[in-house]
Amino acid sequence: MRAGIVGTGAVALSFSGRLRGSPCEPSSIFGRSRARAEEIASRTNVPAATSLSALAQIADVIFLCVSDPAIEEVASKLAAEATLEGKFVVHTSGVFDSSILAPCAEKGAICGSFHPMISFPRDVIVDAEAFRGAFAIEAPPRLAAMLRNLVAFFGGEALEIAPEKKILYHLAACMSSGFVVATFAEIARAAKVVFPDEDEIAATGHFIALAMNTLRNIESRGALNSFSGPITRVDSGTIAKHVAAIRRFVPDLEPFYREMSKRMLSHHPPDVRSKVDLDEIFGG
Predict the structure, then answer these.
(1) What is the pLDDT of residues 126-156, one digit of tens each?
(2) Which of 106, 137, 161 is the last residue of a domain?
(3) Sheet arrangement for strand 88-91
(4) Domain limits at 119?
(5) What percentage of the chain's residues is helix, strand, coil (to nearest 5)?
(6) Is residue 175 domain-shared with residue 157, that is, in the same domain?
(7) Separation CA 202–CA 67 (nearest Å)
(8) How confident is the model over 221-244, as pLDDT tens digits?
(9) What pLDDT is attached to residue 161?
(10) How many domains does the chain have?
(11) Which of 7, 89, 126, 205 could be cross-linked to 130 through a Cys-Cys bond (beta carbons 3.0 to 4.6 Å apart)?
């Protein structure tokens, strides 16, 4: 099956690279920026199409790897310019269900959504290991079967998501990636003080092994059984020392530490919650 890729951003770049040799061999890529499309073409050996209609003419499945706000406009342009009868048209957004592709469906396309639960850094072809993650599929049976086959090729996990729950799925996905990055951005504040002669990557890297161990605990035991640290030990003295150190060295860290401590404590049993008075420790 031949795949056309629409878009020239991070997702389109990685799809162009990772679909090579798959059941959906990329046949061409198209984007608003001809120069960017040709740049991706040179990196992935996937030809740049001259138009949406040219891309659709040789593709059996068309992946819309564009930003969420652009999907509706691109779907309308594709429907207006290309012959779509019997073709698969799939967007890669985690936010929208396939109904946003209605203009393509009206032209006879079989439409769905295929969201890779992967972090896509700019200008990087994500490695094969990342593509062994989860993919959310929402599509009619024949298209869903094809997409599951593609996920199996990647060695990933296919998740069937009900359309009305797609946005909640995306929220959880964003938290599991972006919120982790935000937490490490805060960790970096303290790490740079502890290791002043190291850059941020090196200083923060000392804490990666602990984070990875915690993730393995969550994977095997569940989140609520993976807490550790002074709150779990009901060690108010250590929490107070943390707060004092924050106020001395990294005062900007205090709002984050306070709120995360409250959230962490809220997930503990009542006997723990009753013994740790965070308001007293933080001074109100």
Answers:
(1) 999 999 999 999 999 999 999 999 999 999 9
(2) 161
(3) 25-30, 2-6, 61-64, 88-91, 110-116, 134-138, 157-160
(4) 2-161
(5) 55, 15, 30
(6) no
(7) 33
(8) 999 999 999 999 999 999 999 999
(9) 87
(10) 2
(11) 126
